[in-house]
Amino acid sequence: MAAALQGVTVLDLSRILAGPWSTQNLADLGADVIKVERPGAGDDTRGWGPPFVTRTDAPADASGPDARDAAYYFCANRGKRSITLDFTKPEGREVLLKLVAKADVLVENYKVGGLKKYGLDYATLAAVNPSLIYCSITGFGHSGPYAERPGYDALIQAMGGLMSITGEPDGTPGGGPQKVGVAVVDILTALYATSAILAALYHRTRTGEGQHIDVALLDVQVATLANQASNYLLGDVVPGRLGSAHPSIVPYQPFACADGYVMLAIGNDTQFANFCDTAGMAELAKDERFATNAARVRSRNELVPLLQQRMLAKTIDEWCTLGNQRNFPCGPINTIDRVFEDPQVQARSMRQQVQSDHYGTVDLVANPMKLSGTPTVEPVAPPALGVHTEDVLAELGLDAQSVAALRAKGVL
């Protein structure tokens, strides 16, 4: 079956995570994503290791991205074609303009104004290709007093409020603000960027018009404060840190068991009654202090110690088995290795092994979107630096002599 974005060409001028994650989504949906990288260096994440994946086709004396690429790079670049191009040089800019003329989408994450000095801003490129969809991903957006500042995920987690609600409360062991264990703002920004690009493509099918998309990490972080933002805006409550507990649902947090920890995620009063009955504490579900979720939130400090004492009586497997049998959500707190050993994760084919001409056999995480009519494409390993340069330039009509001349000038 044809992929949803078959026939769509994307120029990926982005680096690191937010931009590449978005363009990887587009590649998974069938777009031809051409990753434009710096000659001799490539995407910064190629060097963000260890761990590294060694190129199987590298000469013995090769170094840097000619010899190996960091595992980090592999998380956000599958299914793309890589070319090297120095578009800061006039000859490189001319090549990029030829690519722009044929492209449907361009994604970049340079600082505001970073591409304008090379004549590669939206206004200039829209004159070359009026139907171009040009997506800019920045820390703070193209307007406002912070527009020209660089933005990084951890900085935005701090400024956007996420770290104020993540971590153990002050005055407790390990208390203090924490960032999330993955660059969640980058990833969420990538998903918003992907949605915006798809919306712009749909708009273009109706009007033929391209447009500029301005996606900012800080905007995304504020938008995804979700219920915590609503609690403040509508309830005038400034949320604080509760560790892994939930501000609006109780019990909804980790509990120590006989051999480790489980996550108990009670979502309604029926589940709480089921849990209490299973735990031999049926009277708690009838106690006016705990009978409803609102009451449990108010009486959190009384209830949690009672539950914690009882949870120590059984093992992780025992509680998880009982949860499945008695209909209350309870699961293990898995390490990453156990995640990929989980039978549900395996059944959903979230780990996929692919063959690469440049890296041998590599394991990748699958795209989680399951489309019945236009499924995601079979995964392809991320490209080695510049391996598609000749192919892409040939598609533009450049012959071998022209390519060799560009290489001699350091453009490729």
Automatic annotation (TrEMBL):
Keywords: Transferase. InterPro entries: CoA-transferase_III_domain, CoA-Trfase_fam_III, CoA-Trfase_III_dom3_sf, CoA-Trfase_III_dom_1_sf. It comes from the Bacteria. Transmembrane segments: none annotated. The keyword 4Fe-4S does not apply. GO terms for molecular function: transferase activity. The keyword Transferase applies. This is CoA transferase. The lineage of its organism: Bacteria, Pseudomonadati, Pseudomonadota, Betaproteobacteria, Burkholderiales.
